Amino acid sequence: MGGGAAVVHPNAGSGQGSASAHPNGHLVLVGPTASGKSALALEVARRRPEVELVSMDSMALYRGMDIGTATPGAGRRAEVPHHLLDVADPSEEYTVSTFQAAARAALEDITGRGCRAVLVGGTGLHIRSVVDDLEIPGRYGEVRAELEAEPDTLLLYRRLSDSDPVAAGRMEPTNRRRVLRALEVTLGAGRPFSSFGPGLDRYSETPFTQVGLRLPHDLLDQRITERFARMMDEGFLEEVVGLLAGFGGFSHTAAQALGYRELAAHLRGECTLDEAVEDAVAATRRFARRQERWFRRDPRITWLDVGEDPLAVLDDLLASFDTCAP
What we know:
Blueprint (H helix, E strand, L loop, with lengths): L6 E2 L18 E4 L6 H11 L3 E5 L18 H6 L2 E2 L12 H17 L3 E5 L3 H8 L9 H8 L4 H11 L1 H4 L7 H14 L19 E6 L2 H17 L2 H12 L12 H8 L5 H24 L4 E5 L8 H10 L3
Parallel strand pairs: 2-5, 2-6, 3-4, 3-5, 6-7
Antiparallel strand pairs: 1-7
Helix pairs in contact: 3-4, 5-8, 6-8, 9-12, 10-11, 11-12
């Protein structure tokens, strides 16, 4: 079995359990950036001809943002069908709800042709939106702008407590991002933010089978550094130059892409290239830690410990895929 890789389950915690609904045949492969998810997913597809890959990366969906997101090239896409790559320009906003709708359509198409999917990526909210079929609130720009003009986060939290005490009880009063979003939705939608679902800290039954990759932090940090160096050698900076020239800038959602924002800052004269690379690597490492914390909370994920060669756990991953057939 995969070179002796350990298969472990985190504690369910909070009495939430980890039961699964009847499996739908689709496997979700998660883990931090640079953990080897894409290579493993491709190998599963090569060994199981009915498999198609669905990207769960919130940045690989942008056209032209290829090197920095490690988007599969034309050769791999010709070999194995890929979905949700290159579906929007970097100047376009692409919300979680838009992504969710596109993923649903892709899965319906795949299922309708008698095939199965491996959903692969590390963008936690986008994955949860599909795995748990979340009801995602809309965006209310005018309301948001008015709220952001208030610098006192605790005052905003008190407003949220008055209008939606359930949502307020799910977050820290000082977490400005979460408080703003909950209050924006409550005021904009005219219904409590908490009414849109039980919250991301609840893990209900799902028909998707989920497997995660886990690496030692020192090895993951090394892989992130080495991968960024390869990207720079492949022309990452030139890619950013071309995107800025071709699209005139990034949308709010695309501008969050790691590496792109740091290199764009260098191109604006805000830092040296070495500083931009150092900042990008550090930001990517921090992001990887956040990904780990996000996924570790989900008791439904089966974990595979990987080392220098992620493909060593391929047999374990194939076993998970084979046993989740509908």
